[in-house]
Design brief:
Keywords: DNA-binding, Transcription, Transcription regulation. By secondary structure, the chain is an all-alpha fold. It has 10 helices and no strands. Helix 5 packs across helix 10 and helix 8 crosses helix 9.
Amino acid sequence: MASVTQPVSRRERLRLATIDEIKQTARDQLDEHGAAGVSLRAVARAMGLTPSALYRYFTSRDELIAALAADGFASLADTLEEAFDLAPRDNHARRWLEVTRAYRRWSHEHVTEYMLIFGTLGLGYTPPASQPCDGTERSVAVLFRCMAEAIDAGLIDPSRFAAELTPALRAELEEWRADTRNTIPPEGLAACLIVWTQLHGFLSLELFGHLPPAIRDVGALFDQQMLDVLLRCGYQGPVDFVPGRQEHGRPE
């Protein structure tokens, strides 16, 4: 017999709605006032509540910030998973490009969240690395899938990085491999970090306004950088450096 889902009580619906309102108010304050405007007292004031009432939902500012960061990672993970699933499976370079383009679009549409989860906005809060949220793991898992499937298809041979890994670094990559429970060898994880840092480095330069002013076709530069990093990792499949060019400047 199929199980019957119990309806959510009115009290629980109100509690969840209040939590959503608290988080949205905190996001609005991040957008409008920056780090200095984020506090439980300020959120309570904006909602017409007493600070003590807010403590029934979040016991500290750090807990509220952690919830906002988790929401940001979940939103990013949803975006990357959808891009991966919609991209062509028989063209690994194009799939990687579609995933990174989706990442770029998300970062432009969620600048505050991007700065929060990757830069902490100077909030004096850093999520504990030993306690990654589900969205963090899902986001990284998309990168792992791109790399793992390209390796399985014989299009990337990460063994080329073996000679570059010191014993200590190899041991640390093995530890990361065990922590993430994936089958990519340490050399492949080194390649993952190369493409990951290239992606984040580009987005940080772009979002913070540090790309050369003369570069106006930023979309074309982004595509070139994302495909070039695949080649530097030893990608042996076909690469089209002009596949469905993006609009100039910011992604649409």
